[in-house]
User: Which sequence fits this backbone?
């Protein structure tokens, strides 16, 4: 392929640039972070237009979910950079004879970031911020399914950042395959589990560590809340968490809801009321809900409703406009659990509600399925909250809200099990692109004969007796890291 | 605490079906939640500690059988280090298990948040033959501390140790959750075909790749503790005697060079090399006598495969005439004497692979600063050592050499500092352990965010207006002035 030699040459150049040490300087890293911030702030309108073009995303969503969060992250990174870069002294418990021990973070080298189409700026640049703050050189491969965004990223990065160190490679699966055959010091992937396996398998060749940010069916457990304010707020947050976030095409979108049988109709009625309030009688016309990214995904979502029993379970919405790739907010109650809509990640504006006898049964329901990226629970019951945390496993748990955990810098963002491994956001982004190098310094002054052979029976016996089977003490003395008792010294000098 | 089962014995065939059944059973039991309690974890750590302390002699004997290892080495490195690990866990576990409260920002206001550590589930630990007890039990105890169910696959190349591990774990541990599977390639393959929540592997890069390939099929995260050529840079203005003794201790004092962090080769200046060689010779004789092949203080080579491999390195044309000390071999007893080679070419066999044996090549450069380039031209090693009193050179070395860990003016000892992560980078591996890092290696850090129903800003919800956009921008920017401006505009 024509691309390969040029790509290899580019990567070689980037590696050489990295070897020069330029990207390790704090000033370089700072300049890149500032460059990114300028890009986002100056090109805000272009970014919003590109998102509108690729996904029909409303400006407010674009700002709330991508532009705004990136600005927040950049401000944090710029403020914290020096702190993140500094070594951390390691406590030396009993070992008095070492000069110092510390953990020094260093960049990994040449990293590859593969991002997804649903939050093309956020999912490309959040990892890139971490990579650059950590001093790496990086190649970004944005998704071809969001071409206007991909193209804007390429031109923006070329204009605002150091082209010797950061490059964008556009393209589809073929270009991704070629990239995966190269030698990387880290690969950061956001996308589906299917492609995640391909990425990790490719990483084996050079023993490249990977972070995989995948997805899953993120459930929202809704308790039978008594206060009308509480349930109203819950409904609003669920609606935004599902339909108001890229029309449900997000790895942390609420995939389905679990609610007690007796509370279901109340929930459904309230949802209908609030959907109308937020999106009007004709949601498509309100232009505030994103559209489906392409025909392939549209057909996929459409076919989820093909199943007769699934169709019968639709209680609201269901209309689809193929030409404009628009699906209106749709609610289903108790579709069959074996149907595709309940076994695959939906990634669209279809919301199944599953009823259980008692809300605590949700725990078992969730545990029968692969671990999701997020679990949501709307409840004030502290026992239920505690049980959800200790008896289920997921990337994260959020109580009484949805999606918002994405914006919390102090919380690691990542999956477990099928939803992935590794994490980022805040300092976790810096760490994920760093190697924590252990550095220990000693002086020449202190040294004891115990460490060195010949180890005669006498020496051994003497030490054992003296240390009374205190193996740690013995170990330290033998390694010359602790002074032996005065008696021992006097006996042998 | 003895269990009814003692794990799979060698009489039964451990195939894919057996492996699948084993994992299924462990997963069901893990689901019961028993391993999560602090109580259970502490009981198991104490049991493992007891197993080792009460069977010190058996352990020493097993290592004598497998490697002709001097008892003191076993005492110090396998038993001593492991006991230290247990003591650290017993002291700190409650603290490690406590959710960490974290600060939240205006982006999620009002809210509170914490990071809750939870076990991954059912994990596989595959260990190596050179420190068979330590490299099995150290990861296993970390997995237990983190609340997981564990399967241990010890190395068949250290059969006495493998068998002893199966016996001790069978006798002392809770066999509902902790199992040993002995065997070789077939058994390991059967295990690798299963879906684990984590795989922890210690060994070489070739098998490390096989492990990672298998893990990729199930999206299983891995820790790979591999190896590499750990260099020792020796500057001129140093205490030569202490330097030589520390190199000797780290090289031949560790399984006769068969350790992942053994000093693999030395880099020093052309001028200084002869002095270093002289002192090494003197000190080696002090430690191992005039007939090192007969010294009781040196381990033997583990098996004939490795003996043949090491012999080949010595027989390489490119290093003929370069041996300045040692070189004696005893094939029958699988012994090779401490051997030093001077001025080996970069393209010799001995410089092309991890030596893992008692051969120490010395590579010479004109200026000692060139050593950094020499090291960086190879793959990143697990450890790098430097002996120098030159502060500037020292800092340059630390800044520019990438390795799992660096040690200035000594060898190997960073292993003992449990507050430091122990792991590789690049070809020397991924992930780390020891101390709290062991706990973290087998833990999922779950983010938990608590929001209340109060304090809701309608600006989050459609219909979206310009005003809402303005206010949101101000809030995220966090600048008070903008917030006030936006608020006023709004009302």
Assistant:
């Amino acid at each position: 392929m024509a691309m390969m030699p040029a790509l290899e040459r580019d990567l070689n150049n980037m590696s050489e640039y990295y070897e020069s040490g330029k990207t390790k300087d704090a000033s370089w890293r700072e300049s890149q972070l500032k460059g990114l911030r300028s890009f986002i702030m100056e090109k805000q309108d272009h970014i919003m237009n590109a998102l509108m073009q690729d996904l029909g995303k409303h400006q407010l969503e674009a700002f709330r979910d991508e532009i705004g969060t990136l600005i927040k992250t950049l401000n944090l990174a710029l403020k914290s950079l020096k702190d993140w870069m500094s070594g951390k002294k390691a406590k030396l418990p009993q070992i008095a004879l070492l000069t110092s021990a510390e953990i020094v973070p260093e960049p990994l080298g040449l990293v590859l970031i593969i991002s997804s189409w649903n939050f093309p700026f956020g999912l490309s640049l959040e990892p890139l911020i971490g990579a650059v703050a950590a001093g790496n050189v990086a190649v970004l491969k944005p998704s071809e399914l969001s071409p206007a965004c991909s193209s804007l990223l390429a031109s923006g990065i070329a204009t605002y950042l150091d082209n010797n160190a950061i490059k964008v490679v556009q393209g589809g699966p073929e270009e991704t395959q070629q990239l995966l055959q190269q030698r990387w010091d880290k690969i950061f992937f956001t996308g589906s589990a299917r492609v995640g396996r391909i990425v990790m398998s490719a990483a084996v060749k050079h023993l490249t560590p990977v972070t995989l940010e995948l997805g899953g069916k993120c459930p929202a457990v809704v308790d039978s809340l008594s206060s009308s304010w509480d349930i109203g707020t819950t409904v609003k947050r669920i609606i935004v968490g599902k339909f108001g976030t890229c029309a449900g095409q997000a790895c942390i979108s609420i995939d389905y809801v679990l609610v007690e049988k007796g509370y279901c109709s109340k929930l459904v009625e309230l949802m209908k009321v609030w959907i109308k309030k937020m999106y009007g009688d004709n949601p498509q016309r309100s232009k505030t809900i994103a559209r489906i990214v392409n025909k392939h995904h549209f057909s996929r979502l459409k076919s989820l409703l093909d199943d007769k029993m699934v169709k019968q379970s639709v209680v609201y919405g269901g209309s689809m406009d193929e030409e404009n790739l628009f699906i209106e907010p749709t609610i289903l109650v108790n579709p069959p659990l074996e149907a595709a809509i309940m076994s695959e990640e939906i990634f669209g504006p279809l919301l199944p509600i599953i009823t259980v006898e008692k809300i605590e049964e949700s725990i078992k329901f969730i545990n029968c399925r692969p671990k999701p990226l997020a679990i949501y629970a709307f409840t004030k019951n502290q026992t239920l909250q505690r049980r959800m945390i200790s008896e289920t496993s997921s990337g994260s748990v959020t109580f009484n809200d949805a999606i918002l955990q994405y914006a919390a810098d102090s919380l690691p963002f990542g999956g477990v099990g099928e939803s992935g491994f590794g994490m980022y956001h805040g300092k976790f982004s810096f760490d994920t692109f760093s190697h924590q190098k252990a550095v220990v310094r000693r002086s020449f002054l202190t040294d004891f004969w115990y460490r060195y052979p010949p180890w005669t029976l006498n020496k051994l016996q003497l030490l054992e007796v003296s240390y009374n089977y205190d193996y740690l003490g013995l170990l330290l003395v033998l390694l010359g890291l602790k002074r032996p008792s005065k008696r021992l010294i006097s006996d042998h000098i | 605490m003895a269990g009814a089962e003692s794990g799979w014995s060698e009489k039964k065939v451990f195939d894919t079906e057996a492996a699948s059944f084993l994992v299924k059973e462990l997963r069901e039991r893990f689901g019961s939640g028993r391993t999560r309690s602090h109580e259970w974890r502490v009981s198991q750590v104490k049991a493992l500690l007891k197993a080792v302390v009460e069977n010190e002699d058996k352990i020493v004997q097993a290592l004598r059988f497998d490697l002709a290892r001097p008892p003191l080495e076993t005492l110090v490195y396998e038993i001593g280090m492991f006991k230290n690990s247990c003591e650290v866990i017993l002291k700190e576990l409650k603290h490690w298990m406590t959710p960490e409260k974290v600060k939240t920002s205006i982006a999620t206001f009002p809210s509170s948040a914490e990071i809750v550590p939870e076990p991954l589930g059912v994990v596989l630990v595959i260990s190596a033959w050179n420190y068979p007890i330590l490299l099995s039990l150290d990861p296993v105890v970390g997995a237990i501390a983190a609340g997981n169910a564990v399967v241990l696959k010890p190395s068949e190349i250290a059969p006495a140790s493998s068998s002893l591990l199966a016996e001790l774990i069978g006798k002392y541990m809770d066999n509902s959750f902790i199992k040993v599977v002995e065997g070789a390639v077939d058994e390991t393959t059967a295990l690798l075909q299963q879906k684990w929540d984590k795989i922890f592997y210690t060994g070489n890069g070739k098998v490390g790749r096989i492990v990672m390939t298998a893990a990729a099929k199930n999206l299983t995260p891995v820790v790979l503790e591999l190896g590499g050529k750990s260099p020792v840079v020796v500057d001129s203005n140093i205490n030569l005697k202490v330097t030589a003794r520390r190199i000797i201790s780290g090289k031949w004092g560790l399984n006769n060079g068969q350790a992942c962090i053994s000093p693999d080769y030395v880099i020093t200046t052309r001028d200084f090399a002869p002095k270093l060689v002289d002192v090494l010779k003197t000190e080696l004789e002090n430690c191992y006598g005039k007939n090192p092949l007969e010294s009781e203080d040196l381990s033997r080579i583990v098996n004939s495969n490795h003996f043949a491999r090491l012999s080949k390195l010595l027989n390489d044309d490119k290093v003929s005439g370069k041996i300045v000390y040692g070189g004696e071999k005893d094939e029958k007893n699988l012994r090779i004497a401490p051997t030093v080679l001077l001025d080996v070419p970069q393209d010799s066999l001995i410089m092309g692979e991890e030596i893992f044996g008692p051969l120490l090549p010395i590579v010479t450069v004109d200026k000692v600063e060139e050593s950094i380039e020499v090291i960086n031209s190879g793959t990143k090693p697990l450890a790098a050592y430097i002996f120098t009193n030159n502060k500037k050179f020292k800092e340059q070395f630390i800044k520019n050499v990438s390795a799992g860990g660096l040690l200035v003016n000594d060898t190997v000892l960073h292993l003992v500092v449990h507050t430091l992560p122990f792991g590789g980078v690049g070809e020397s591996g991924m992930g780390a352990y020891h101390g709290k890092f062991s706990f973290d290696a087998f833990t999922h850090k779950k983010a938990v965010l608590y929001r209340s129903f109060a304090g809701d800003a309608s600006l989050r919800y459609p219909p979206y207006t310009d005003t809402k956009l303005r206010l949101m921008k101000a809030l995220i920017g966090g600048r008070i002035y903008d917030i006030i401006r936006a608020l006023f505009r709004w009302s």
